[in-house]
Design a protein that fits this description.
single chain; 245 residues; Rossmann fold; six-stranded mixed sheet; four-stranded antiparallel sheet; binds adenosine-5'-triphosphate; cell membrane; MetN_ABC_transporter-like
Length: 245
């Protein structure tokens, strides 16, 4: 049960605009699901609803580990169950790298300072940031900051990790280092939903690819089923649709 996500008839309105039009989705523990689709298709909204960052319609149901997601519950509680990595790194600039990673366990679990520091250093080593633990976020490159953000997302030992276009704010030369960390998490038992335009990552790492358009899941299947072979015209058409949207 741990790490499962069950979504039934997920509907989300922004005013009169229906951003999600009845999403049904079952995700197994440890599955890596990449969500792709044109800009504005509802990808971010979908994972923000799972993380309770967005309200959704009363008839909709989201369960994480069998427990209903109730919008508006305290964010601290959410962090304990679901880790999230955003497009921007959202690190606290006045805290050191280590302190950024220590914050949630200290605040939510009351972990002692010493224990939280040991755990933070272990996680920073996991993402290859050991040398920068005492620095402040502004002293790190974008790729390094995003790796710290991943360490921070792991700090509450979540069963579910959500990624919202984690590489799209990065300089191209830093994309690989962040994708490498994400690849290293795949297959470790943590369930991952990754909103991404990185088709190479989706092909290589995803157990399943979901293609969204206009608030609906249009296609779901293995990377080959949804993306086809790289040379297929269908993939080229899809990519140009995504890039030109
Ligand atoms: N806070 C908001 N208020 C009003 N409309 C919103 C809000 N957030 C998103 N939307 C609209 O909902 C739709 C889905 O947005 P969403 O951010 O989920 O798309 P997306 O697929 O993640 O796009 P992108 O790839 O550009 O990030 C879009 O039409 C967007 O304009």
């Amino acid at each position: 049960m741990s790490g499962t996500i069950s979504i039934r008839n997920l509907r989300k309105y922004y005013g009169a605009y229906e951003a999600l039009r009845g999403i049904d989705l079952e995700i197994e523990r440890g599955e890596v699901v990449c969500v792709i689709g044109p800009s504005g298709s509802g990808k971010s909204t979908l994972i923000r609803c799972i993380n309770r960052l967005e309200d959704f319609e009363a008839e909709s149901e989201i369960r994480v580990d069998g427990t209903p997601v109730i919008p508006g519950r305290s964010l601290a509680k959410v962090r304990a169950e679901v880790g999230m990595v955003f497009q921007g790194f959202n690190l606290f600039p006045h805290l050191s790298v280590r302190e950024n990673v220590m914050l949630a366990p200290r605040r939510v679990r009351g972990t002692t300072r010493a224990e939280a520091a040991v755990q933070a250093d272990r996680l920073l080593a996991r993402v290859g940031i050991t040398e920068q633990a005492d620095k402040y976020p502004e002293h790190l490159s974008g790729g390094q900051q995003q790796r710290v953000a991943i360490a921070r997302a792991l700090a509450m030992e979540p069963q579910v990790l959500l990624f919202d276009e984690p590489t799209s704010a990065l300089d191209p030369e830093m994309v690989g280092e962040v994708l490498d960390v994400m690849k290293s998490l795949a297959g470790t038992g943590v369930t991952m939903i990754v909103v991404t335009h990185e088709m190479g990552f989706a092909r290589q790492v995803a157990d399943r690819v979901i293609f969204m358009d206009a608030g609906e899941i249009i296609e779901t299947g293995s990377p080959e089923q949804v993306l086809g072979q790289p040379q297929e015209a269908r993939t080229r058409n899809f990519l140009s649709a995504v890039l030109n949207h």
